[in-house]
User: What shape does this take?
Amino acid sequence: MIEVEGLSKRFGEVLAVDDVSFSVAEGEVLALVGTSGSGKSTTLRLVNRLIEPTSGVVRLRGAETREMPPEKLRREMGYVIQSVGLFPHWTVAENIAVLPRLLGWEKTRIAGRVDELLRLLALDPAEFGGKYPRQLSGGQQQRVGVARALAGEPSVLLMDEPFGALDPVTRARLQDEFAAIQRERGITAIVVTHDLDEAFKLGHRVALMDRGRLLQIGTPESLIRSPSEWMVRQFVGPEERALRILSLHRVADHLAPAEPGRWRMDGRHAFDAVADKPIGRVEHRDTLREALSAMVWNGTDLLPVVRDGEVIGQISAAAIQAVGRRG
Assistant: This one.
């Protein structure tokens, strides 16, 4: 889908991006992560030619982007930035409809697309379509920014610190929503972030940058288990390595069958029928890190796993520890 080969950008004496190469497959999310000044945002702008490279090539489906008319390239690549950049005197619906209008879509098609995207991003069209950006919270504005980027049905979504300015709770919620939408729609995306946990949460693969160079690229777990050099090891955090690995695995993939008669549910509360006492529980979609925290909190090494209010299995501390230390 996207190929970046030998990409470099020099601003005067400063080499901001230094011979960077990577590829992004269709339906894949690549997270570019690094500290401030590492070159990750500049790399993203080079991909869609917001700035021109000093050297190197970017290809989209095999075609060199420098040979494509800029307006066609921008239609192919939706762009989301931290500051959102909504037009303040236009309604939410008008902001989302900008590109479809420029593309000459019929009004009924535009209206349907706006409604579809608002619902997709958990915004009721009847409630939010007619509002202005100043009437929205930061999280709602960011949702509208994502909807606007998706409105023209781009083949690629580029996101530059898309959730960086939000509070932790809103940020986590939007990360979850984006991950769910990406899985459902098979969106191809490059996400720039300085937050390694966000990169691991959103990216199928993660590319770690420093001083304009690409240090290592791979799956989140491969970066944690096999960092290629000192800088990668420091960024990943050796003291937190096991916990980071546990954050990459879902309980649903490691549960065991429930012991017959061991657990029962009473509404939203779980009980250990053998000990005849209430007990904590974990959801099937929780991470192993969250499950381990629940075990520590409840003083147990075994908890029921619940989905839609029903016990579907159990997870043990031993199973979690095996994932954290293997390999």
